[in-house]
Amino acid sequence: MQGMEKLGLADRVTFLHVREHDLYRWLIECDAGAAADLRSAVLAWLAKVRPTQIFGDAYEATNVTHDLGRAVLDSAWREYVESRPLREFRTTPGVPHGARVVEA
Predict the structure, then answer these.
(1) DSSP states of 33-51
(2) Is the separation of the CB atoms in 59 and 66 below 8 Å?
(3) Directed axis angle between helix 32-49 and helix 20-28, to 10°?
(4) For residues 68 and 34, is the Cβ–Cβ distance under 8 A?
(5) What gap in Å lies between CA 49 and CA 16, rounded to an integer?
(6) What is the dihedral of CA 84, 89, 95, 101, to 10 degrees?
(7) How far apart are CA 99 and CA 104, in angstroms?
(8) Which among 11, 62, 13, 16 is positioned nearest to 38, based on CA atoms?
């Protein structure tokens, strides 16, 4: 947390307090329920904070905890965005068909 304080971001950071050891245990035990619970916590956080964009760590294919975290974040974000009210829908050059503009 000290690093976030030095950057002036301490009030904008949320930690889910999941230990790396627990993530590996969930994977070894094939505990999909624990990952689903983590996803629910991320989804609840998204609903509370109501961001218009997020940034996540890249998939590495060498660090399973980063990759699991990214998959949970992407999945929760997808549901969060799809649940928001649609403000406008248009086809614009350079924007993929079906892209959505959501209320901020």
Answers:
(1) HHHHHHHHHHHHHHHHH--
(2) yes
(3) 130
(4) no
(5) 14
(6) -30
(7) 15
(8) 16
- Spatial separation of the C-alpha atoms in residues 104 and 85, rounded to whole Å: 9
Rounded Cα distance, 72 and 57, in Å = 11
Q: Give which of 57, 56, 51 is closest to 102, Cα–Cα.
A: 51
Q: How far is CA 59 from CA 43, 51, 69, 80, in A?
A: 20, 22, 9, 21
- Please write the tens of the pLDDT for every residue from 23-78: 889 989 999 999 899 999 999 999 998 888 888 777 788 888 888 888 899 999 99
